[in-house]
Design a protein that fits this description.
The structure is a homotetramer.
Chain A lengths: L6 H10 L3 H6 L1 E7 L2 E7 L13 H17 L6 E12 L7 E10 L4 E12 L2 E16 L9
């Protein structure tokens, strides 16, 4: 299964996790190790729907992005991870003031990686699994990704 | 297949579409008719990743929410729509300054509705299909949905 | 979480598992308990492709059907289980002479149940996870299902 | 979009479609052109469940395999197509004596292809859409695929 990441690589990935849209929404990486990443969202009013439940789109974005960074822990530093597709089931409404996502990679060892993400509503009386996703990812050498010119 | 919506219902759904997280991100309903809804996002810097491509989470939230409102056009006014699950494939990176989503319902006639969403990057030289989703939805009588107490 | 099934119910479900197409292909239930079911296929030449790998369709049928019967362990006896949808990722080719599927229900407590299935290739040197699926199921009272007239 | 296939290539793909498990179940390719393939199943008693409806596993195998061969129409002859994953929604029960699947590729132009499959129940009063799938496929050079030794 290869070797553990360096502390520097761990710190880099945790920081790299929160940029652009992800930073704007407020998702943060909390822990990572080989093939696994845990993220968190402090839930604000703007993440909710009119009925105060968390919007499915918030949960889906977290499940996708966290699986992508779990994949990052397994590829050389010059590779980027792209999402090919994902599927997510919503099991329960989420309403607590904090959301936790734990992702792990089920398949490595090639250009295609497959991860799964479990999203938990962090309620006063304990965590409840509110969504589960399977995410198909692709590792691409960074020289093959061009910056979008806008 | 039942009758067309009233103009008032159409206006209500288009307005109702943008609340909470959806309004915060900036998605808007543009057109609707029985079983179909089209939405739009004016893309801002905060929707992008560090490479200027749109984040997959933005596209997924749009595909899910727009399919949900396509379902709303088919159920009586006292029903709400919940997402059971969805699956989305990302076909191309999106980088233009406007995103369009068109959703239609493939299966109605019961508590479970199934829709599909196509998301297009609105480029200067024409629209390009960047993502396709299938969304499973559930119609629930509003009396059975309680407001989350937070 | 309710009570364990009676031994009679367990025997009934294991026998009921293999009928029609499922019996024709050769899938068999091996164990079951509340919310879980394990099935097995003795792989024959007719299940393979021209390259001797197992066809994805065999693996998918097993993942779907086994999740359905895991759901059967949680509903009253007068209910039937229908598959609304499923998604499956193929992680490795399967080539051994026996396939094992383990399914468990992630969400119960309503008309919609969600299960996950893991399919393992039973190789001489141990089991290897070759596919993972998420399955959305619906419990329907048997009085609401009519026999197809053909 | 490249050129149309030769008549010889079309005949080859239609014949190649039915081997191993696929031939055993009875699926047959009927038509193909660039990026599209149509297949058919004459439904027999062994494809049905105890209630005479077609088993979901039969429909899923058809949706997967037909999308795979739609992809074959777009790649050079020395490439093979593997299924990475698929997702399928079951919209209606199928009970007629013939099933038709039409697949088309949504994304080509690289190693990853994405197709969609629509499965129709061929009823006396017309075709009814009974399932829809999205299938993610990978084109692999045949020199990189080894025969399983069993």
């Amino acid at each position: 299964m290869g070797k553990e990441m360096s502390p520097e690589r761990k710190e880099f990935l945790k920081k790299d996790y929160s940029q652009g849209f992800i930073a704007d929404v407020g998702f943060e990486a909390v822990h990572c190790k080989r093939g696994r990443l845990e993220s968190r969202l402090k839930v604000l009013k703007r993440h909710r729907q009119q009925d105060n439940y968390l919007h499915a789109g918030v949960i889906a974005a977290m499940a996708d992005h966290t699986a992508g960074y779990a994949a990052f822990t397994l590829v050389p530093e010059e590779y980027r991870i792209l999402t090919i597709e994902f599927k997510i089931n919503f099991l329960e409404p989420a309403w607590a003031d904090s959301l936790v996502c734990r992702s792990r990679i089920l398949r490595e060892g090639g250009q295609i990686l497959v991860g799964e993400s479990e999203v938990f509503d962090h309620r006063p009386d304990g965590e409840v699994l509110v969504a589960k996703a399977i995410v198909t990812l692709k590792a691409v050498h960074s020289s093959k990704i061009k910056q979008a010119i806008i």
